[in-house]
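Q: Hi! First time asking for a complex rather than a single chain. Here are the components, and I think there are two in total. Is that enough to go on?
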Amino acid sequence: MGLVVIGGVAAGLSAATRARRLDPRLEILVLEKGPVVSYGACGLPYLVEGRVRQPEQLIVYTPEYFRKERNIEVRTGARVVSMAHARRELVLESGARVRYDRLVLATGARCDTCGMAGAGQPHVFTLHTLEDAGRMRRFLAEKRPRRAVVIGAGYIGVEAADALRRNGLRVTVLERSANALLRDDPQITLAVRRVLEEHGVELRCGIPVESIEADRAAGVECDMVVLAAGFKPNIELAVEAGVEIGRTGAIRTSERMETNLAGVYAAGDCAEVTHRVSNAPAYIPLGTTANKTGRVAGANAAGGRERFAGVVGTTIVGIFGVGFATTGFSSEQARAQGFSPVSARVEGLSRPGYFQGVKTTVELVADRASGRLVGGSVIGEEGAAGRINVIATALGARLTVDEFEQLDLAYSPPFATVWDPLLIAAQQLRNAW
Amino acid sequence: MGLVVIGGVAAGLSAATRARRLDPRLEILVLEKGPVVSYGACGLPYLVEGRVRQPEQLIVYTPEYFRKERNIEVRTGARVVSMAHARRELVLESGARVRYDRLVLATGARCDTCGMAGAGQPHVFTLHTLEDAGRMRRFLAEKRPRRAVVIGAGYIGVEAADALRRNGLRVTVLERSANALLRDDPQITLAVRRVLEEHGVELRCGIPVESIEADRAAGVECDMVVLAAGFKPNIELAVEAGVEIGRTGAIRTSERMETNLAGVYAAGDCAEVTHRVSNAPAYIPLGTTANKTGRVAGANAAGGRERFAGVVGTTIVGIFGVGFATTGFSSEQARAQGFSPVSARVEGLSRPGYFQGVKTTVELVADRASGRLVGGSVIGEEGAAGRINVIATALGARLTVDEFEQLDLAYSPPFATVWDPLLIAAQQLRNAW
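A: Yes, that's all I need. Here is the structure of the assembled complex.
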């Protein structure tokens, strides 16, 4: 077999598709351990919520589609249990052996707390696969739970809390660290807490959960628990085969998404990437990065020469209609990365008052030594994605605050204010220097 | 008098305010020829529409406010008729003389077709000042016109057409050039035409209007005409005083917004700026640029050292709820500027279908020789501002297409698709090379 891809969701199928595009004759096989491939995992909370009515709505393509339209063989229920790179051979759970010339590891990640005492109970869920969401949906319909605990206030945790609350449950979110959204930023946490509380969801930070009982977790009564903490890359197969693991704990890759083993690539939630602001390795598993790194891995596995420049860590999550968007580093994170952060936070309007503009909070973080922007956040009911993307673009281009202040952003009353909050934040940041 | 500012709208008051901030003791006088100052001129079409109910809603500050809160003297009804720089002296229409040490020219622009035969009739309007909008509003209420002709399909023209149509009029827009929105781009014109026609507004391009009759213009029957073509900078005063005019016909300025006369600055709609993509002088009068250049002129007039880096020509206009956003150059414009353009246009979704994503058209234009992006456009009912701002940021940072393709943009189903149309356009553009 020419190219074998382990994993049939975002990274794996991006790799297979891109490889096919570059080499129409290459043999390509995708091995997926689950029953379906090619689904939008980021849509799972909306399946739980009920906004997405059928799991099928999240499935982009079927194995048949790949076979017929792209000449890519896709096997579901095909879990790889062993990898021997010297022989270029994989062993499946079924005992079948598969040989490869080139290999893309897109083995994904899993919830690290799944081994927690009590995690195996029927009222405990993760939200990682289509089956997870389906199981949760059925539980909601059949058992009609009234009180849920969500463990972890990362993206999936707050999205799950939002979805369950909209299903009428009382929800408490327990977060081990001091802050929400995986960001060391007390102001963001405060804003998240405020929105959650306005909608009747409680957020408790600094609460480690060691075990889950039948009717409570960390002392909070509940009849349902969602585990959404401790995302951990699936690297066991790679480790066994001698693939090098980076200091983040994920698979180390070059900018071509190649591992230390020639012809073996890694992409998606199992792979480490470079953070473009710090130039340090980073593990920030996200759907966008999975698609992009998969594409690059697939291209290079098919003989192309593409590169992945890295990430700046841009994220956005909607909590009860409010967008929380972050990119680069918070002040605290920047300091931990060796920068000398200076920051400014402003509250502006998304557009003029006579166009029903809403409050928009922008923070910019810069490095005092170089003058460069190193991070930012945007919170608001509208325009948060567009505005964080401007900051993300500035980070990608390594702009200084002075350069950022000179950006020529669009203005017209239905869309923005004449001084966008982004530019006001830049002015304030210069004043704060 | 330390600093005199001619013009009391966006540029002039930005200049005065910034000067005050830098020098608390400077004497500052603002001379405004009209009866009010500090109004949001970009909101005028929405006053005509009726969305903005009272002219006062568009007035940000009063002369009293400037006097009391900022120690800035503001005189309305103070038209400057003559300027003698050797004596550092201005003469007002009233005959009064005003001396200055430093001067900021923020004299604005006017509609160049106002001298057209028949332009003085009571059913003919411009939409440039608060009084213009008030007069049009009264005419709509009292005369109940049924058919309007708008001359000019630039921003103000299409906004006026939208506003009048929403007031129940039949509207025809006549544009002298081949294209709408001041952009040499047949695809944009096609899209504008489609949206206008869907809402019952006719757009005719290539129609010069030489005169306006009592009941028709260019053969189109109407009982109301809006002149929204041929924006021209007010430079007469400057010319008289020996201020140099640039090749765009507006006042030539340095990056400090200083004219050729020491201590005389120009800002806003009367001033020329640098286009950052072509590095050539440009005349693109917009509210954002007026505020920014005013701020820089005021700072430097008060002894500061600030610079205006120039524009990339970012604009957005809403037509019946659809955002039309452009930045940099279209292919045709790029070619005229000496670039060898290559472009790609894609249609994507603003967010996933299950989140009611809407059609979003993105075009990127690059220069084949350098690989650099030189322009782009975004058309859509949502997210157009955010997406054009990403392109504008890329132009400001002089990114290549390869660099643009590597941007780490935000994704989450309520906000975007995993492959944003911006990134798909970049991929297509590389394929089109």
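A: Chain A has three domains: 3-108+234-301, 111-230, 315-431. Let me know if you'd like any chain examined more closely.
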